[in-house]
Structures are given as structure tokens and as C-alpha cells.
Amino acid sequence: MLYHMANYLLVIKSLSKTFEWPNTSLMGHSLGAVTSYIYSMLYPSEVDYLICLDAAKPMVSKKQPTSIMRQHSKNSSNIINFLTSGEPPSYTIEEIAKLVSTAHKHSILPENAKYIYERNIAPSEVNPGKFYFTRDPRLKTGSFSTYCQRDLVELAQLITMPIFIAKAKDSVYYEDKENFYEVMDVVKRSSSDFDFNYVSGSHHVHLNHPENVFPGLINNFLRKNSVKDRSKGGIIEDIIVNNEKRIEST
Fold first, then answer.
1. Is the dihedral of CA 147, 150, 153, 158 positive or negative?
2. Beta strands 131-133 and 163-168, pairing class
3. Cα 20 to chain center, whole Å?
């Protein structure tokens, strides 16, 4: 089975139901931001605010449907080969850092790559001292979903909650930029607090230079809009307990 946007949306909905959250606050980067944006369109009354980092609306692909299908077919075949083969290729930590940085077109600084790969690698049993990637290869296929710009413009009026958007100055738009700003013009009118900011940095600015995004911009947004009761579900207490245990163990 391949992943679909519906899988991501169901995860958020399941968490909200499991913890019995009366409201959900969402923050995401890239695909996470797009997922949060779509969820907010589906359940606008359940989302009290939304934070999107260098993405928001779903992209409208420039590729023809036949080209998209051929790419999915190729990716699917590669995944089957990967899943039925032995241990994946292994690398030194230094090589992994460079691979992660290069794969993201150097949007991630090599010294910060560890925050990405440390949860996605495992020691090699074939080559001691080296590591291989454990990430799910199905994530590389993308989604078969396509979006119509006309529909996205109309649906943008459902983004009524406060929304914070950070657009990295050194990042691309991944689609015609006119599509992005056409939707933003609607969101600007529909949102109760439209907070749009250009920030200096790459697509991974939050990873390389969090000081450009968090201390002033996002914190100011949160002070205004994070006003709902968050005691429901016990998650705050769990975080506090875990932090105390972590401090005691150091």
C-alpha cells in the first residue's frame, strides 16, 4: 500500500478524537504545512489556529497526468525492488550528513542534517561502523491526488481561523507563484488573523536559523491566538513529567 494525503489527515483526526481535544492547533513545515492546511479546510470549526512554514496550499502540478502516472509507476517498481532486497546501502555518518544536505539541494546545512537523519538510520549488520536509512521508501512516491486551482481558490474561504505563514526568501514556490498568491488573497480576507511573513533563509530556515522565525514572529502570533483551554487530554501533564524525568537523569 502507498501513502495518500487521506492517511495523514486521518492521523490528525484520530489523535484529536483519542485525546478528546475540543480544538486542535496545527503547525507544519512543507508537506506538514500542506496537510495542516487541508485539514483546516475540512474541519475549520475544530482548528483554533494554523502555522505554516514555507508552504500552505496544495500545489497545482504543471505535469501532464500521463507524466505523473509514469513517474508513479517507476517509483512503485523501485519500491518493490527495495522492499524485497537485503539491507540497504550503508554509509559513514559524514557521508550521511552530506547525502541529506545534497538530497535537499543544500537547503539543510550539513551540520544540521543530524536532526533529520538521527531518527532515520540504523547500524549496518553488513558493514560495521556504517549506517543505513530506515525511512519508509513509500514516502518517496508522493500522492496520486491532483488539485485544481479554481477549487483551491474557492475552498480558501474555509480558512477562517488565525493563520501564520512564513515564506522563506531563498526557497522556490514549487508551482506557479501566481497560484500561491491568488489563494493567499482569499485567505487574507477569510482568516480572522492573517499573519504573513517573509523570512531570510532556505526551505529549512526553521532548522538552520530558527531565530529568524520563532522568537519574535511565531511567539507574537501565539500570544495573540493561543488562548483556548489545553488541559483536556492530559498531554500537557505528560510533557511536564517527561521533562522532569529528563532533567533528573542528567
1. negative
2. unpaired
3. 23
Cα dist from 214 to 54, 204, 211, 222, whole Å? 14, 13, 6, 10
Interatomic CA distance for residues 171 and 201, integer angstroms: 8
Q: Compute CA distances 210 → 12, 109, 145, 194, 219, whole Å.
A: 25, 13, 32, 21, 12
Query: Phi, psi at residue 235, to the nearest 5°?
Result: -70, -30
At 246, the pLDDT band (50, 70, 90 cuts) reads very low
Give the CA distances from residue 150 to residues 42, 147, 206, in Å, rounded to whole numbers and listed in that order: 17, 9, 31
What is the distance between the alpha carbons of residues 49 and 170, in angstroms, rounded to a whole number?
A: 26
pTM (global) more than 0.90: no
Task: Give tens-digit pLDDT for 128-182.
Answer: 999 999 987 777 666 656 789 999 999 999 999 999 999 999 999 989 999 999 9
The 24-29 sheet, strands edge to edge: 24-29, 47-53, 163-168, 194-199
DSSP code for 216: I
- Predicted pLDDT at 128: 95
Q: Rounded to whole angstroms, how far apart are CA atoms 26 and 23? A: 10
> Which of 62-71, 80-89, 128-137 tops mean pLDDT?
128-137
Handedness of CA 162, 168, 174, 178 (dihedral sign): positive
* CB contact at 8 A, 143 and 5: yes
